[in-house]
Fold this sequence. Notes:
The complex is a heterodimer.
Chain A: H1 2-20, E1 37-42, H2 59-76, E2 80-83, H3 93-101, E3 106-113, E4 122-127, H4 155-172, E5 181-183, H5 186-189, E6 195-200, H6 208-212, H7 215-231
Chain B: H1 3-32, H2 36-44, E1 55-63, E2 73-81, H3 86-99, E3 115-120, E4 125-130, H4 133-136, H5 142-159, E5 165-170, E6 188-189
Parallel strand pairs in B: 4-5
Antiparallel strand pairs in B: 1-2, 3-4, 5-6
Helix pairs in contact in B: 3-5
Amino acid sequence: MWQRNHWLLTAGVGLVALLAQEPTPWPIEPIEGDYRTVVLDPGHGGADSGARGGTGLLEKDLVLRLAHSLVPVLEREGWRVMLTRQGDELRSFDERAAVANAEPGAVFLTLHTGSTGSFGTARVYSFAGFAPEPADANPRSPGLLPWDRAQQPYLESSRRLAALLQSELARRLPGSPEAPASAAVRQLRNIAAPAVALELASVAVDDARALEALAPALAEAIARALAAFRAAPERTP
Amino acid sequence: MNRALKITLVGLAVLLVVAAISWRGLRQRLTRAPSPAQAQRALVEAPATSPAAPLVPVRLYWAAPEDEGRGRLAPVEIQLPLAEDPEQRARQVLNALIVDAPSPQHRTLPLELTLLAFYLLPDGSAVADFSHDLATATPSGILSEQMAVDSIARTLEANLPAVRRLKILIQGQEQETLAGHLDLTGWIELQRAAAP
């Protein structure tokens, strides 16, 4: 009888201890080293033109053409390539994120052309990071990743990818910075995958063809950076 | 010359004199009229400090013109008669950041921008509410939007020790992005150590 009660007591204490445990903060581990899909995101689209140049160049058109030109180059390198939009349609930030988040082993690259910056230079950004969660935040259920903080577990791998890509761009597009930057780019925040933004300067150019002429150098830089990232995703460049 | 012609000529001369006087007055009024942005700023800007308020060195972060296109901010020190009240002081400093840029190359925020309100809570959380020009007149792009936000954040870091974090609103509303790229939904944590 005593023995039976002892076992019941032990099991009860164990159960209470188990329930009292803090949930693991980030139970979902990023997939490292098994990247096979590139999700290319031509920014803006539809009613959202993005940056607008003095001669009427629109960011949404330029980045779509750039994205289409990248597809065959990356496919030749063995990547499966997905676009978040095929034509001039508006997709929400969440719809674009959903494309990458539903794809295991994806790498996300959002393409932009800014209004400022020296012509022909390119900058790469990883997400700037998240403010600490408030102390009174509801405890998170294990296995769940908050949508608005989905990038958090991938920040380190995104920084590695950004460094590789910025280094390749600096070699091919003179004047580009050597080191990547971080910024609170809205599109990156809820991507559950390594994710970077690339901004090419700029729509202020008179002729779109001058920017489109940079596409081969851009494609080569992206292809080399992705190959290096896939080969050694853990190593800091 | 008959009488009717004389009367007509005199009438025309009087009309010409009246028109010239009216035109001069209208021109003077037009040249003196403030732009809509100036008028809005005059309505909401911080009350003027007393003439006796001491001049205080203020560090404002604008784009470094020698690094044009590279996205670097550099501090410029100016003297302002600042109020004691931190909220009023923040409004003065941010208004100077908008209107006092030494050149267009220094500018990180559109000249027509107006700071509608600035609130500082006891825990160091600050809310800056800007006019819609922040979204519509800031050049769209990651680099330009980040420079706009960083210049505001670093200027507050350098001059308002009580501000720990910042929320940017546009016309009283939270916006998803500044001009299509930079996330404005969260709080911007000020890194006090970063301000030289």
